[in-house]
Amino acid sequence: xxxxxxxxxxxxxxxxxxxxxxxxxxxxxxxxxxxxxxxxxxxxxxxxxxxxxxxxxxxxxxxxxxxxxxxxxxxxxxxxxxxxxxxxxxxxxxxxxxxxxxxxxxxxxxxxxxxxxxxxxxxxxxxxxxxxxxxxxxxxxxxxxxxxxxxxxxxxxxxxxxxxxxxxxxxxxxxxxxxxxxxxxxxxxxxxxxxxxxxxxxxxxxxxxxxxxxxxxxxxxxxxxxxxxxxxxxxxxxxxxxxxxxxxxxxxxxxxxxxxxxxxxxxxxxxxxxxxxxxxxxxxxxxxxxxxxxxxxxxxxxxxxxxxxxxxxxxxxxxxxxxxxxxxxxxxxxxxxxxxxxxxxxxxxxxxxxxxxxxxxxxxxxxxxxxxxxxxxxxxxxxxxxxxxxxxxxxxxxxxxxxxx
Length: 405
Fold this sequence. Notes:
Layout: H1 5-19, E1 23-27, E2 33-35, E3 38-39, H2 46-52, E4 60-64, E5 68-71, H3 78-83, H4 88-95, E6 100-101, H5 103-115, E7 119-122, E8 129-130, E9 135-136, H6 140-148, E10 155-158, H7 160-168, H8 172-193, H9 202-215, E11 220-221, E12 226-229, E13 250-255, E14 257-259, E15 262-263, E16 266-271, H10 277-296, H11 303-320, H12 330-336, E17 364-367, E18 370-373, E19 378-381, E20 384-388, E21 393-395
Parallel strand pairs: 5-6, 7-10
Antiparallel strand pairs: 1-4, 2-3, 4-5, 8-9, 11-14, 12-13, 13-16, 14-15, 17-20, 18-19, 20-21
Helix pairs in contact: 1-2, 8-9, 10-11
């Protein structure tokens, strides 16, 4: 599948119409320093890519009812020699935007436009550091806001929700890209599963998963992989992946390939030997909740109501396992099942979405109940990816079996 300039042009037009904005200004991501004069691998801001298809850092997109153009970043002459020259014609062909201006000319044009209006739509506010996640934001968005705020009379309006609502309903080409990302993940995990007894460490698995993705045409991992043996699986976002694997421990893998910027997100729990009766019981409980969750996902369902129903189902299973006594005790439920059952999936693994909207055809979600019992060194999660259809949903990752052993 190919993302044509028509895809990006129509996304820009739909955003203008849905937001009723007079002028929209958005920034690409910037390169981030890794050490000394090296950077981390570049990943474009998903919203910027959705509207342009451009993979270059530090560009600025300006969309208006009468004008659309891109502003290039300042660029030292030696970078053409070291990094290669930017192909302007290719950027025009990809994005469908003919007017691409150098930094000085672009900002002059933008400043003149801003002087004629009172409101600009952009993505705001920007936090420099996200306390809840423990990481820093890419500074490019903040730099753009700082520049816009020099126009003191300008009102900045957050357009984030309008973009999220557009991205939430996947177009056919997006679903095709997601399906390929999912298929690459499933094919790679099938290959791993067939040789599971040969692995002695978590990092050996990570190495072969990485290789499997690249060999099948993916860009790599959509997110840092989770490969967790034994008690490590009870940590939801265990990412060290450096421990030895013990016989008869459960092994939890939460991984996804990235293909054309779209993300798969699949979890499987496997036994490397003969599972115990307790391990089987926990696995069957998670699988039972997931199967029930699939039946709940259809057009018109609200996310909040769906999650409450899954919580109720999980509480019954936890009581059956002897982990809780009262199925109405939310605190005890979340001790062993601390996360949501689903999130939206697309350009971001946790994709942009308005969670207040009822489910509708074209929305792509994960379905990932789990049970985590640190005191028993058990963690089980089963995660599949689905698309909402007119009558229910389709499981996009159905080709990868759930078998525990």
